Amino acid sequence: MTHAFAVDLGGLIDLLSEHLYAGPEVYVRELMQNGVDAIRARQDAGGAPFDPELAFAVQDDTLTFTDNGVGLTPDDIHAFLATIGRSSKRGSVEFIGQFGIGLLSCFLVSERIEVVSRSASGTPPLRWVGSADGSYTLEDGPADTPVGTRVILRARADRAQYLLPDRVASWAGAFGALLPYPVVVSEPGRRTVVNVGGAPWLDHAAGEDARRAAVLAYGEALLGTAPLDFVDIHTEAGDVRGVAFVLPWTPTLDARGQHRVYVRHMLLSEEETQLVPKWAFFVKAVLDAGALRPNAARDALRDDPTLHAARAEIAQTLRRWLVGLSERAPARLRELIALHYLSIKALAAEDDAFLELFLPWLPFESSAGRLTLPEVLAHAGSAEVRYVADLNLYRQAAQLAAPGGPPVIHAVYTYDATLLERYGALHPEVRVSRLDAGDLVQELTPLTPAERQGAATLLAAARDTLVPLDADARLSRFEPAALCALAFPRAGRDLHRTRETVGSGGLWGDLLGDLQAGADYATEVHFNLNHPLLERAARLPDGPLLRRVIGMLYVQALLLGHHPLTARELGLLNGGLLDLIGAALGGPDTAPASAAHLN
Ligand SMILES: Nc1ncnc2c1ncn2[C@@H]1O[C@H](COP(=O)(O)OP(=O)(O)OP(=O)(O)O)[C@@H](O)[C@H]1O
Coiled-coil regions in this chain (predicted)? Predict the structure, then answer.
């Protein structure tokens, strides 16, 4: 035996309100979308011309929404209003509605939904009243009902605020901002058209200058300040039209890539993230998709091949615009790059042609300041670009880079290293080298055997002093001579420092201990015999003073390299400073203390 499902309408409404819709105000949007679809259907039917209009009238606790669209025949009412989940629009990309549930959102604010409708096809008018308990009644409608549909809602006691005329006006104005016909909100004694302005980018009537001025004014209202420029968008896939405003600031991470998107002139979202490519965070777009589909909640676009194709076309348009700008207005491009180079680097990392075009303009952090690649090459005086991708290592490299000599680039952002490597691959005449700790050490001059012998005491004392700190001491010569010592992290160094912080034992201590096992010293410290202090230290006999000096120079090298200090290193620094102060002040208690506590 076959039985029919029964649906608990109350449960369904709870589901919609709790999980599908942002808030009860969405009923305004759903009513308008049905009106927009109905007007479209009447226009498509090609009958007598009419002036489309959507209207909300609010009086006391009652709201009446009217559209002069195609209306409903008695058969339509039975088929579509009385059956949840059935839609007359399913599969047709011309309409916004798809799912046959939108009207239910009216139950979020009203216990009953009254629909009075007359079909453009000439059938008599009908009145349908649906209740939240799942029952409905049907009777003849008033004979003077015009073609179209009227939906009458009486506010639920707890939702009266959602039917207040001012609030309805602000929602209807936002949802219907781009509709090409009036949306009216009225209350006794006041009638307001809430969607003035429309889409200025489509208004070519007064000429291009007037259009540009109107679009920029729209952008200024949107951003709160004048945009740098705007890019017209029109895609074939999804029929997306609109503009992308070039932001006059660098957007924060959480504000990136959020765009105002309409579907068939009705607002879908102020924070849409799918339609514009992610890398284009230098723009905020306002787009109206004529043939893309929203999801059931109507707060995002459906992720389908048309959406992907539309996004690809928008990417192409933005790319072309940037390329055009480099030819048309280089000064403006420079201004744009100064604000948005991260976005442009992201794009260049994906696209060689784009990289070729823009890399000469893009700034990189370097030991000689922020430079473009041509500037780096000019500084270098050779066709070599050297970069370091690790921050700690970069600090050592930057100290070694002589002023006026070849700069070292700090490939600090996600795309920098990729960009430099791609550039190297495309330009074999330029050598792009990524420096590691080994390369930097190569640049230090080793001591001659005679020098080594002369500094043997210093080296032995240094090794002895630093072993407990997990550091290995080396003696070299390097420029600038003003640098006493350089500390290079070795593999496992960060683990070592973390281990000191978490202490030994416990899960982390054990785990890090295991990882550390077998690693070499955490830090390699090179003392610079070019420095006069080191030359003098090399002549000192081994003893507390020499060890104190070595400890202090080691900590100084760590600080210069911006390495975080462990508690022991901090202790070393404090002890050394106190000793020095004591020695400077003189007296019996202030002689340099032994460095025994180092061990
Ligand atoms: N103002 C209207 N004019 C004409 N027909 C309407 C109107 N409002 C609703 N209908 C009819 O009722 C059906 C159900 O409407 P409902 O809003 O519940 O769903 P939908 O618009 O089809 O889809 P969705 O749930 O995606 O909005 C529609 O498919 C349409 O046939």
Answer: none
